[in-house]
Structure formats: structure tokens, C-alpha cells
From TrEMBL:
Pfam families: CarbopepD_reg_2, Plug, TonB_dep_Rec_b-barrel. It is found in: Cell outer membrane. One of its GO terms (molecular function) is siderophore uptake transmembrane transporter activity. The lineage of its organism: Bacteria, Pseudomonadati, Bacteroidota, Cytophagia, Cytophagales. Keywords: Cell outer membrane, Membrane, Receptor, Signal, TonB box, Transmembrane, Transmembrane beta strand, Transport. Residues 122-224 form the TonB-dependent receptor plug domain. Belongs to the TonB-dependent receptor family. This is TonB-dependent receptor. It is a multi-pass membrane protein.
Length: 770
């Protein structure tokens, strides 16, 4: 008996000793991604059967299960609407880290509604998205003004109605805008040519601040803006959105309505439609009205889609139409008048308010059609095809005599065809994923006869072909990505000058590449870096402009000997997301050879239509660098504050001076107070903010007038969200811009020579979701 007891005690002692000596401080780490698009999955559930413990993936898809001993474990990964994964793991060291990709499956959620958000593109460079409440507050503004809510993004404007986004000092043909996945192609080369897009189509607007030429082509060297509508429904679930916006300045009115639903009979079939209209009159500076600054818009878009487990097909169409008045005082009669208004700094007359739009003006319409499809060749391979067609019509009218006043001075039509064909490779359990693709762009630009003047730019045909490959490695907190692309572009131009036919045949070729990485240092700290080369061939207007650009009220002179721009941009971003604090800091450096810029000369051009300043396209080596920052802090559960700003420097390294039209330093900060009980899901928030803009001290050697002084604007906003019944929501917004009706001039406004910017504006915004 004593022998048996001794044996049992010996066995128990050996087992205890073994358990004590075993390493039980091990962890299972991993990353959960969508198989469909390689996006991270937040809130996936990971369960370890043997230890009866688990974890939930964070917003980057990362998870960790701690305090495990050496041994074999059965791992189960689940996420609603996706096929679960079971894996067997032999854990012996603390270096285990694995990537899992979940495949979507069709499930019935009954009455459950899932709310979520993910960025429109996954990249290792700096990405910021405008969605949800921030997008709601921007409704009624044009695309450029909406994006000013993002640090590092400003606008290059011509008056108060025409603005285009600027990312890290780059704009126009250096910024690519994608409307529902199709690169927006209009006459974007003009400083006063605003993007032909209605922001009401967007459910999310994403800004990529790095060079993205490998993914999208040469025009993405300065950054990319993605304007994405809401996903097309795949089942019957009707949703309607009505927006009403009014503004006191310009007595502006804006209405938009959208509706989306899915089929009850055909599983996976859905549609959505949207339409908007906008009307505004003369803008008012604090002390006077600006003559002929009204606008009108009429827009429509619609899409139809079908999705199954293997196949997805989508058709999309959008129509944008606008008429824009150009400030009358920007077109002066003679040289003395031009010098006098520049010296005066404001118009000599006050025309009062009117909705009438007369010459000079722009009339622009844009059609965009898209057909997109994807097919799952296997669990790992997906084939994607996309075709886009665009027709852009632009007419610019000048102040002219007699019958000529009814004819446009610039009449352009541009037709663009784009084709994208690419293959995605995503494995369920591999850390590697990639894309290989080709795309083509064909354009034909024509000047419509009958204007009575020599065309500013020639007729041209352009063909661009590109082939690229991108590979990405994702494992736990680490992501590494690299890509390579080759483009070839041919441009053929022709026009008559003084009855002589002038032609040119041009060819451009170039490689571009990038490498980047992202590392989640801790659950709250993420660092990403991206180094990329980029290039851009000179645009036709930069090469061949030779005359009066009526909408810009300027004479522009091109240079047919310009070379392609080539750049090397390095972007680094550090993000901290704590319980009460959120902070993002982005630092970048961009070295550009053969940078092309429009420079004011000390000359004027006098004609029967007036006196105009002369600008010329020049080329020099450039170095751009700067910092963007944004942050917020919760002082209490009700009171919060935010600050965001940007600093940019742009140096002409050849002549050791500065470029024109580079944004000055700026910061926007504010406080927000949330009324009502903390548990309420109904927004009731008051925000007071202050925009501080410094004077641009880094001016070129010559400008028509010195840079204007810095300014400070105070703004007030109130947002109220009310639930109407179980399914309907009413959002009410009141905004007061420039509360104290401050007179100021923005350096990035090309009409700052002639007028102040907009005065006080009170906006009422109503959104009803049902």
C-alpha cells in the first residue's frame, strides 16, 4: 500500500515539475483580411479550443491570444457573412504569426443591420478618408472646398465658385480624381477648370497623399482622390436620402435626392440613382457684391449591379452640367484700368445682387459611363475588367462685340476611353498577395470651329499604355508592399495658325516604382513609410498654349521643348489612437526634376477685348517638403477639441527662389461640446473653430501684386441628429462661416488681384434618411 502511494506521489510530482518547467508565456499572433480585396477585417472572432480563450481583431485586422503553453491547438476564426476557418497550430516558440483571409458567403441577417467602414484602397502611404459625420457637414460644397477638411489639402481657386484640390502643393494634372473607379478626364489643365463631379454622389471621399503612379498612371504623381458611392444593395432594403442646403451669401440653394434598393426576386441584383440641382447668385465680399459670380448646376447618376459568389457586374452613368459666371472686373478695358484695379485691390463698382450669369462665363457638361466586372477564377485568383467612356464639353465666353458675344471664345470637346484589365491573387492562408494588370487610355480633343479666334490649344490624339505589378506581404503588425510600372504615351497635335498647319508627333516612355511598409508598433501606435518614383509628361496646354485663356483672364504661353517631370517622393506617417487622444503626423519630401509651372511675366497683352496679364510655362528643378498634422482630444465625455494644419516649402533649386501659387502655412483648431445624455445616440453638438492662415512670405521674384496679409476666420457649427420612428433619421445642421465678416484675400485665389474673398455666410443643412 505504501509502495502504491509512493508511486502515485512520484507521478504527481513529475507532472507538476513538468508543468512548472513548461513555457506558458507564448502567444498566437495573426492578421485577418478579406479574401475579396485584401482589406483588414475588424471584429473577427478568434477562439482557441484547448485553452478556452480567444481574441477579437482590431481595425487593422491584427489579433493576439496570450498566456499559452507549448503544445498543439485548434484555432477557429469566424466573422459574420464569411466562411469560417479552422487551423491546427503546433506552438513551441513565441514567433508564431500568421495571416488568414476570410471568404464572403451569402447569409440572411434577418432584421439585423451591420454598420462598418473601411478605406477605399489599401496602401502603405498616407491615406485619409472623409465619410460619416464629416462628409455630412460638407454637403453643399464643391469637391475642393469639401477636401479642405483634410490636413495637407488646400485649394487653388479662381474666385469663390471655382476651386480645385491641392495636395502637398500639387494640383491639376498632377492629381488624379477617380469617380467610382474611373479616372476623371476633362480639361483639368486649366487653373479655373474645376473638377466635373458632384460630391453628392459620394458615400466616402478618400485622399492618398503619396505618389501613386504605379497603381493609376502618370497623372497620379501628386496624389489621388477617390470619390466612391455607397455599395449597390444586393437584397431588398430600400434607402432614400434627401438633402436640402441654403446659404445666405449668394442666396444659394442646393437639393439632392438619392434612392437605392435591391431586388426581392433576383438575388444579388440592386440599383441606386441620384440627382441634384444647385443655384447661386452674386457672391458678397464684406463690403460689396462681386459682379457676375453666380452659378447653376444640374447633375444625375445611376448604377445597376449584380453580384454572386463567382461573378460581379456593374454599370454606372453620371452627368454633370454647370454654368459659372466669371468675375466681370477681372476683364479690364485697358492697361490703365488693369493697373488701377490691382492697386485698388477691389472692384470700383458694386453691381448688387442678381442670379443672372452673363459673359464672361463657362458652360461645362460631362458624361461618364462605366462597365465593370470581376470573376473568381479560383479561391486564389480573381480577374477584373473595367471600361470607361467620358465626353467632356467646355465652352468659355468672353466679353465681345455684336454677334460674337453669343459665340464661345473657347469651344472644346474631349472624348476619353479607358480600359483596365488586372488579376488579383489572394490565398486563404498565405501572407503574400498581389496584382498584375494593364491599362490603356485613348483621348481625342477637338476645337469646335466658329469661335473667331485662334484656338488656345491644338487638336490632339493621345494614347497611353501601361503595365504594372504590385506585391504585398502581410503578417501580423507588419505590411510591406512594392510595385513596378512601365508607361508609353504618344501625342499627335494639329492646328492652323495664320492659315498655316502646325503639327507635332511626341512620344514619352518611363518606368515608375515604389516600396513601402506599415508597422503597428502597439495597439495604439502605427507607423508607415512609402518611397516612390513618379513622372508626368507635359500636357498639351503646357507645350502649345499660345493666346488668351478667357476663363482665367490671362494670356498663356507654352513651350514645345518642355521635358517630362520626374520625382522621388518619401512620405512618413505616425498615428496614435488612444482612449482620449488621436494624433496623426505626416512628413514628406519630394524632389522633382523638370518641374513645370505657370509664371507671371512683367508684361500685359492689349486687345479689343481688354488688357490681360501674360503668363508663361517654365521648367526648373524643385524640392517640396512639409508636415501635416491633425489631432483631437476628449477633455470630458462632452467637451472635445481638435487641431489640424500644414506647413509646406517649395524651392526652385536652380535659381534659388520660390514658385508661385504654393499654399501658405495654416492651422484650423476648434472646440466641440456635446449636449444631452451620454448614452444617447442622437447627435446634439456645437462647434466653434478658428482658421489661421499666415502670409506667404516665400514669393517668386515677380508677381502682379504682393502676397496678401495673413488672416483669421472664426466659424460656428451646430449639428443635430434626431431619430424619427424606428428606421428614419433627420440631420439638421447650421453653419456660420466667417462669423465676424472679415475682409481677407487667399493667396491661392487667382482673383485676389481684383477682389476680396467671400464674407459671412450662414448655411442651413437638412438631411432626411428614410
Amino acid at each position: 500500500m505504501k509502495f502504491i502511494q509512493a508511486a502515485i506521489l512520484s507521478i504527481l510530482f513529475l507532472q507538476a515539475s513538468s508543468a512548472f518547467s513548461q513555457n506558458c508565456n507564448l502567444a498566437i499572433r495573426g492578421k485577418i483580411l478579406h479574401l475579396e480585396n485584401n482589406d483588414p477585417i475588424e471584429a473577427a472572432y478568434i477562439w482557441v479550443v484547448e485553452s478556452a480563450s480567444g481574441a477579437v481583431s482590431d481595425e487593422n485586422g491584427n489579433f493576439v491570444v496570450k498566456d499559452l503553453c507549448e503544445g498543439t491547438y485548434a484555432l477557429t476564426i469566424q466573422y459574420l457573412g464569411h466562411k469560417g476557418i479552422k487551423d491546427t497550430i503546433k506552438l513551441s516558440t513565441n514567433n508564431f504569426n500568421k495571416t488568414y483571409r476570410l471568404e464572403e458567403e451569402s447569409v440572411s441577417l434577418g432584421g439585423v443591420e451591420i454598420h462598418g467602414h473601411k478605406l477605399a484602397v489599401q496602401t502603405t502611404t498616407s491615406v485619409t478618408a472623409l465619410y460619416g459625420e464629416a462628409l455630412l457637414e460638407s454637403r453643399g460644397e464643391n469637391l475642393g472646398e469639401s477636401l479642405k477638411r483634410i490636413s495637407g489639402v488646400t485649394t487653388f481657386s479662381t474666385g469663390n465658385s471655382i476651386s480645385k484640390p491641392v495636395i502637398h502643393g500639387m494640383h491639376s494634372n498632377r492629381i488624379m480624381i477617380l469617380n467610382n473607379g474611373i479616372r476623371l478626364e476633362g480639361q483639368q489643365w486649366g487653373a479655373e477648370h474645376a473638377p466635373e463631379i458632384d460630391p453628392f454622389v459620394a458615400n466616402e471621399i478618400t485622399v492618398i497623399k503619396g505618389a501613386e503612379t504605379v497603381r493609376y498612371g502618370p497623372e497620379a504623381m501628386g496624389g489621388v482622390i477617390l470619390v466612391n458611392p455607397a455599395p449597390i444593395p444586393t437584397k431588398k432594403d430600400p434607402k432614400t436620402n434627401l438633402y436640402l442646403t441654403t446659404g445666405t451669401n449668394g442666396r444659394m440653394g442646393n437639393v439632392s435626392i438619392s434612392h437605392a434598393n435591391g431586388s426581392d426576386k433576383i438575388k444579388g441584383l440592386g440599383y441606386q440613382v441620384q440627382a441634384s440641382a444647385k443655384r447661386g447668385g452674386n457672391i458678397k465680399s464684406p463690403d460689396y457684391f462681386q459682379g457676375n459670380t453666380g452659378l447653376s448646376e444640374l447633375n444625375f447618376s445611376g448604377s445597376l449591379g449584380y453580384s454572386s459568389s463567382k461573378l460581379g457586374v456593374e454599370g454606372y452613368y453620371s452627368y454633370f452640367n454647370t454654368s459659372l459666371g466669371i468675375l466681370r472686373d477681372s476683364h479690364t478695358g485697358n492697361l490703365d484700368d488693369l493697373l488701377a484695379i490691382i492697386e485698388n485691390g477691389r472692384p470700383f463698382s458694386d453691381p448688387g445682387f442678381t442670379y443672372e450669369i452673363i459673359n464672361p462665363k463657362q458652360v461645362v457638361s460631362h458624361h461618364l459611363a462605366k462597365l465593370k466586372s470581376h470573376y473568381h477564377l479560383s479561391d486564389q485568383w480573381k480577374l477584373n475588367f473595367q471600361y470607361g467612356f467620358q465626353a467632356n464639353y467646355r465652352q468659355e465666353f468672353d466679353k465681345r462685340r455684336g454677334d460674337l458675344n453669343e459665340k464661345p471664345s473657347l469651344d472644346l470637346e474631349l472624348f476619353t476611353n479607358t480600359i483596365d484589365l488586372f488579376v488579383d491573387q489572394h490565398s486563404l492562408k498565405s501572407e503574400w498577395s498581389g496584382t498584375i494588370g494593364i491599362n490603356g487610355i485613348q483621348q481625342a480633343n477637338s476645337n469646335i470651329p466658329g469661335t473667331g479666334v485662334t484656338p488656345l490649344i491644338p487638336n490632339y490624339d493621345m494614347l497611353n499604355l501601361g503595365v504594372y505589378a504590385i506585391e504585398k506581404y502581410s503578417k501580423g503588425p507588419l505590411e510591406i508592399e512594392g510595385g513596378l510600372r512601365f508607361d508609353t504615351r504618344s501625342v499627335n497635335t494639329a492646328r492652323f495658325v495664320d492659315s498655316q498647319l502646325e503639327t507635332a508627333d511626341l512620344m514619352y516612355n518611363n518606368f515608375s516604382a515604389f516600396i513601402g511598409g506599415l508597422y503597428q508598433i502597439s495597439p495604439s501606435v502605427t507607423f508607415n513609410t512609402n518611397l516612390g518614383t513618379a513622372w508626368r509628361p507635359p500636357n498639351v496646354n503646357e507645350l502649345f498654349s499660345q493666346g488668351l485663356h478667357h476663363g482665367a483672364a490671362a494670356v498663356e504661353i507654352g513651350d514645345p521643348d518642355l521635358n517630362s517631370e520626374k520625382s522621388l517622393k518619401w512620405v512618413n506617417e505616425l498615428e496614435y489612437d488612444g482612449s482620449r487622444t488621436h494624433l496623426e503626423i505626416t512628413a514628406y519630401a519630394n524632389n522633382i526634376s523638370n518641374y513645370i509651372y505657370l509664371n507671371p511675366t512683367n508684361e500685359t497683352y492689349v486687345s479689343l477685348r481688354g488688357t490681360f496679364n501674360v503668363y508663361e510655362y517654365l521648367q526648373a528643378n524643385a524640392f517640396f517638403y512639409g508636415v501635416d498634422f491633425s489631432g483631437s482630444y476628449m477633455f470630458t465625455t462632452k467637451l472635445s477639441g481638435y487641431a489640424k494644419g500644414s506647413i509646406i516649402r517649395a524651392k526652385n533649386t536652380e535659381e534659388d527662389n520660390f514658385f508661385p501659387f504654393i499654399p501658405s502655412d495654416r492651422m484650423d483648431w476648434g472646440l466641440a461640446y456635446q449636449f444631452g445624455p451620454e448614452t444617447s445616440d442622437q447627435t446634439n453638438k456645437l462647434t466653434l473653430s478658428n482658421m489661421l492662415v499666415a502670409r506667404q512670405k516665400r514669393e517668386p521674384d515677380f508677381d502682379l501684386a504682393a502676397a496678401p496679409p495673413g488672416y483669421a476666420l472664426f466659424n460656428l457649427g451646430y449639428q443635430r441628429k434626431l431619430k424619427i420612428g424606428e428606421d428614419n433619421t433627420l440631420n439638421l445642421g447650421l453653419q456660420v462661416q466667417n462669423i465676424f465678416n472679415t475682409s481677407y484675400k487667399e493667396y491661392m485665389n487667382r482673383f485676389r488681384y481684383f477682389t476680396d474673398d467671400m464674407g459671412r455666410n450662414i448655411l442651413l443643412k437638412i438631411n432626411y434618411q428614410f
